[in-house]
């Protein structure tokens, strides 16, 4: 119990990290689930989001500017996602998808390096959320609590969208039987571009709101990509709940792990992932549509 | 090294690979042509130190070591259908084992090669028992985990020099008790010897019944099981062989660089090794070797000229290759073969 109290702040940090990682990773999972595309440029989109924060908020933050940054990041992410959807339309083979999207990631990474340089850039949280509140007898940053809230809202919102609306029904139907959906007059390419764009917009916003915690720097694209891949494979490909569970697990391992065994956090994350995959190769909560392990 | 050019002619009639059927019949002549090309390529490569200056020779040594790593990725990804990011772990294990052997035991290059290869083989066998139970994307992630865990282990251990890497490796010697070789050309010939040995072993493997079983798993594992094959054993043997080969490549890397760092077993190297296989044409031997050379040239040489923009140029090459080379570099030759061969539907599908 003492251990629990002593580490509860770290554990809440882990939930906050898990919340932003969920927002980043969910797009990767849905795009794989619906389009069968493994988008290895996903981490680059998150890094673009972080650099949108640098560009918009670098001169000094205000709440209006922070809001604007979220909108710009979402728009840029949406465009990038639609572009990637168009690029990958005719590429069905997973290895060639990997070459295409990793090639795009290398181009984007170098472009960002040219524009923003190699130094670590910090992004301030919105001034209204920059304070702290008492939590377990110590001040705790409000921003991290807000991140947890945002993660919850995005998760519940996506669940409602996918399970309770017509749009969601069309998306789910496209996953199951693309030909049939096409036959009843839905343009599935638009559906797929929408999913890709939406997922990428979330990734860009996720990268932006994660930047006050992680900063913006070259290499964060690969870091985010690896986080997202681990989350998606732990949770089960194409599964919303799986991504949430995976993100929380990775968030906890990365924060509590760092606190307890500094230097071994990445070691821990991959060890946990390998252990889970050996017991449940399709992930903890595989999607009903059964993409787990498919190639 | 003998017949690297032949893979495209040895398509199983039973596989799904959409290769022209005449290729099986026309195999004899093309096999000799492939052998001839391989011998010529080997002779040209062997003559390089006689007419090139030391710097490009060193670069070529690096390319050969990397190319052998890429061939090991291809054996799993292209031939067995298991996309892997894990081969750099065994590459690094072989490189470290060779370096440590050089520091503490002997400078003899053969001993270093054997020790490095065996260490990598043992590691691949143990991790393979776990890894080959999965497939597809999950296999890719398990092998990524192997790479990351090996990377962290190398960074954490004092024996391997931690994150500074392993330095102070003495030069290799060829004869027992002989002097360490210092000349770049001799070092290059050793790396070329290891490369040729590794490629020859790979060609023998993929042309053996074992290689046929590997392709059978790639094209339909369930079907292989249905006819009573123990696919687990085939995959484990393939995984262990590929791991040994990567370890062998690692010993060649150490022989020429005399330095090993955890960066030699990192995600970035694993990614370009996998992409080199796709770029070159998965499931052929010579395509990925050519791709490996192009990738290293762009990353290290053109990148240095173009103000450190090697990554961006490589990215553009990969993106273009997806659309212009649907079967990779090796596909160029396959298309020509289809046009030359005595096929009743000559010309059809060749117009690309």
Structural class of chain B: mainly alpha
What share of the residues of chain B does DSSP label as strand, in percent? under 5%
Chain oligomer state? heterodimer
**For this structure, what is the CATH class of chain A?**
Mainly Alpha
Which regions of chain A contain 5 or more consecutive residues with pLDDT less than 50? 290-295
Describe the overall structure.
The complex is a heterodimer of chains A (295) and B (352). In chain A, strands 1-2 form a two-stranded antiparallel ribbon. The longest helix of chain A has 34 residues, at 2-35. Chain A is mainly α and 295 residues long. Chain A has one domain: ABC transporter involved in vitamin B12 uptake, BtuC. Chain A is globular, with a radius of gyration of 19 Å. Chain A starts with a helix and ends in a 16-residue tail after the last helix. Chain A is 74% helix and 3% strand. Chain A contains 11 helices and 2 strands. Chain A has helices at 2-35, 42-57, 63-88, 94-116, 142-164, 166-176, 178-183, 188-214, 220-235, 240-260, 265-279, and strands at residues 132-135, 138-141. By secondary structure, chain B is an all-alpha fold. Helix content of chain B is 70%, strand content 0%. Chain B is built from 13 helices and no strands. Chain B has helices at 22-25, 27-51, 54-79, 87-104, 109-131, 136-156, 184-207, 209-226, 231-257, 267-280, 286-305, 310-324, 328-340.
Task: Present the secondary structure layout.
The complex is a heterodimer of chains A (295) and B (352).
Chain A: H1 2-35, H2 42-57, H3 63-88, H4 94-116, E1 132-135, E2 138-141, H5 142-164, H6 166-176, H7 178-183, H8 188-214, H9 220-235, H10 240-260, H11 265-279
Antiparallel strand pairs in A: 1-2
Helix pairs in contact in A: 1-5, 1-8, 1-9, 1-10, 2-3, 2-4, 2-8, 2-9, 3-8, 5-6, 9-10, 10-11
Chain B: H1 22-25, H2 27-51, H3 54-79, H4 87-104, H5 109-131, H6 136-156, H7 184-207, H8 209-226, H9 231-257, H10 267-280, H11 286-305, H12 310-324, H13 328-340
Helix pairs in contact in B: 2-7, 3-7, 3-9, 3-10, 3-11, 4-5, 4-6, 4-9, 5-9, 7-8, 7-9, 8-9, 10-11, 10-13, 11-12, 11-13
